[in-house]
Amino acid sequence: MLKSARRWRPLLAVTGFVLLAACSDHDDMRQSSATPANSEPTMMHQTAMGNVMTTPAGMTVYTYDHDIAGKSNCIGECAEYWPALIVAPGSPQSAHMTMIKRDNGQMQWATADGMPLYTYVDDKAPGDIKGDNFHNEWHIVK
């Protein structure tokens, strides 16, 4: 009887691994479907300046006067204070926004007409608008 039980061990081990793999795949599918394919990288949020564009976390989004459509000119030290709104790998195309390629190769979200989007490091809480009209070059997206 002991020999008979030993013959089943490899089969039980393989069956266990197959079930574990199936459960793992199911969990991955459930997590990936939790974010709808049409989810937007930004949303509108009520602030002291009215309804403005924000990240999903509520951080205000800005444009820079020295940019041109399709090209970010905020690099180096500028980008330390004004982080680009970077496209997460695998993000679906947005219905209301475009993606542009930064000089460093990263993809950045931009308005529908191609103006690059940023957040501001001194905005610490959702709804903060400290960067609006900074040096008369940075503007909230409404």
Features:
alpha+beta; 2 domains; globular
Q: Short summary of the structure?
A:
By secondary structure, the chain is an alpha+beta fold. It has helices spanning 2-34, 77-81; strands at residues 43-47, 50-54, 62-64, 97-101, 107-111, 138-140. The protein has two domains: 1-34; 36-142, no CATH class.
Structural class per helix/strand content? alpha+beta
Low-confidence stretches: 8-38
- Which H/E pattern describes the elements? HEEEHEEE
The number of domains? 2
Shape: globular
> Approximately how much helix is present in the residues?
25-40%
Tally of contiguous helical segments:
2
Strand-residue fraction?
A: 15-25%
Number of strands: 6
Largest sheet: 2 strands, antiparallel
Radius of gyration: 24 Å
C-alpha end-to-end distance = 77 Å
Report mean pLDDT, rounded to a whole number.
Answer: 80
Question: Biggest sheet, strands in spatial order?
Answer: 1-2
Describe the structure.
The model is unreliable at 8-38 (pLDDT under 50). It is globular, with a radius of gyration of 24 Å. The protein has two domains: 1-34; 36-142, no CATH class. With 142 residues, the protein is of the alpha+beta class. The chain has a two-stranded antiparallel sheet with strand order 1-2. A two-stranded antiparallel sheet has the order 3-6. It has a two-stranded antiparallel ribbon with strand order 4-5. The chain has helices spanning 2-34, 77-81; strands at 43-47, 50-54, 62-64, 97-101, 107-111, 138-140.
Reconstruct the topology from this structure.
Elements: H1 2-34, E1 43-47, E2 50-54, E3 62-64, H2 77-81, E4 97-101, E5 107-111, E6 138-140
Antiparallel strand pairs: 1-2, 3-6, 4-5
